[in-house]
């Protein structure tokens, strides 16, 4: 049904993963672990790792695939937003580098830094820009090279992380059945130290990540549960009205606990962590693309996204694809 109300909608989605694959057996040669231990505690079987690529290369290559799917040129993009915590430089932004690589001369570009919640934060910005008339076509990218901030001697974190990028076109829509319905965002700086990527004085090294695993596990379930339930209640919906839940892919046990505690069917959750590991800002677009490519997510489906990341930051997005 068409009307005169301006909405935004996620259109074409694509993803890019580095060629190198690091399996759990490969990791067991680096740190004291094994495949059974990793799978049982995280659900992860492998992760993709950059070799000579920078984070902006991942974002750029993902963007090329998205533009091809959408059938538009880079000149058609009004705005480029990159959600990331592993920008090659503190400044300029990854988005500006992607703009140059794409030759997207008509776009303005900037990064959003909200860690694993970054894609949802970026989606909220894109939705606001389109609804306010500041843009009609936005390239939104979630991209992170987490291997560059991994302490490969820390068994508790190195098994979790991977590299990749997912991107989508967010564009103007007048269709009730193809739009972003609602988004909510939250943060709690009192839990600033639960997940930290530290600064480093070494050249070409970003510093490593530390995490309070047990606390993060509890916070993730609590925060994502609250954001999902709030957005459903606000829009007079229940989980029965949702076709697919696409949660941040931090740990398969978190996803299972999230569903069990809220009475959500686990078979409604898109789970791609076994293939990608935790790619921070990239996990949700990677999981969306995974769900589409595996003939799960289809046009017209109602989808509920949710994530929690360092900060703490968290939120949820409700949309019709």
In N-to-C order, the SSE pattern is EEHHEHEHEHEHEEEEHEHHHEE
The number of distinct β-strands equals 13
Tally of individual helices: 10
Structural class: alpha/beta
> How many domains make up the 3D coordinates?
2
Shape: globular
Helix content: 25-40%
**Residue windows where pLDDT falls under 50 for at least 5 positions:** none
| CATH architecture grouping of the largest domain | 3-Layer(aba) Sandwich
Strand order of the largest sheet: 1-7-6-4-5
The end-to-end span amounts to 14 Å
The CATH class of the largest domain is identified as: Alpha Beta
Residue fraction in strands: 25-35%
Kindly report the name of the CATH homologous superfamily of the largest domain.
Thiolase/Chalcone synthase
- What is the CA-based Rg, rounded? 18 Å
**What is the CATH topology descriptor of the largest domain?**
Peroxisomal Thiolase, Chain A, domain 1
How many strands, which pairing sense, and closed or not: the largest β-sheet? 5 strands, mixed
């Amino acid at each position: 049904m068409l009307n005169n109300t301006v909405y935004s909608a996620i259109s074409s989605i694509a993803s890019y993963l580095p060629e190198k694959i690091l399996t759990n057996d490969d990791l067991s040669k680096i740190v004291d672990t094994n495949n059974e231990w990793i799978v049982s505690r995280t659900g992860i079987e492998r992760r993709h790792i950059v070799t000579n690529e920078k984070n902006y290369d991942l974002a750029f290559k993902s963007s090329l695939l998205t533009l091809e799917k959408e059938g538009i040129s880079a000149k058609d993009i009004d705005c480029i937003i990159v959600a990331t915590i592993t920008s090659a430089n503190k400044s300029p932004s990854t988005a500006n580098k992607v703009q140059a690589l794409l030759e997207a001369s008509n776009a303005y570009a900037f990064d959003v830094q909200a860690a694993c919640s970054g894609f949802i934060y970026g989606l909220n910005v894109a939705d606001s820009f389109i609804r306010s008339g500041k843009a009609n076509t936005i390239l939104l990218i979630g991209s992170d090279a987490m291997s560059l901030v991994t302490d490969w001697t820390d068994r508790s974190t190195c098994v979790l992380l991977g590299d990749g990028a997912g991107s989508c076109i967010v564009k103007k829509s007048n269709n009730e059945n193809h739009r972003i319905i609602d988004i909510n965002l939250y943060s709690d700086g009192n839990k600033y130290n639960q997940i930290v990527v530290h600064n480093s004085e070494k050249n070409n090294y970003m510093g490593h990540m530390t995490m309070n695993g047990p606390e993060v596990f509890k916070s993730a379930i609590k925060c994502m549960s609250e954001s999902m339930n709030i957005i459903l209640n606000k829009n007079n919906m229940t989980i029965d009205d949702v076709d697919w839940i696409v949660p941040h892919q931090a740990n398969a046990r978190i996803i299972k606990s999230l569903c069990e505690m809220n009475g959500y069917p686990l078979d409604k959750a898109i789970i791609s962590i076994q293939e990608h590991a935790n790619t921070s800002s990239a996990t949700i677009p990677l999981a969306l693309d995974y769900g589409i490519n595996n003939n799960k997510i289809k046009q017209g489906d109602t989808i509920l996204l949710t994530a929690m990341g360092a900060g703490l930051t968290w939120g949820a997005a409700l949309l019709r694809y």
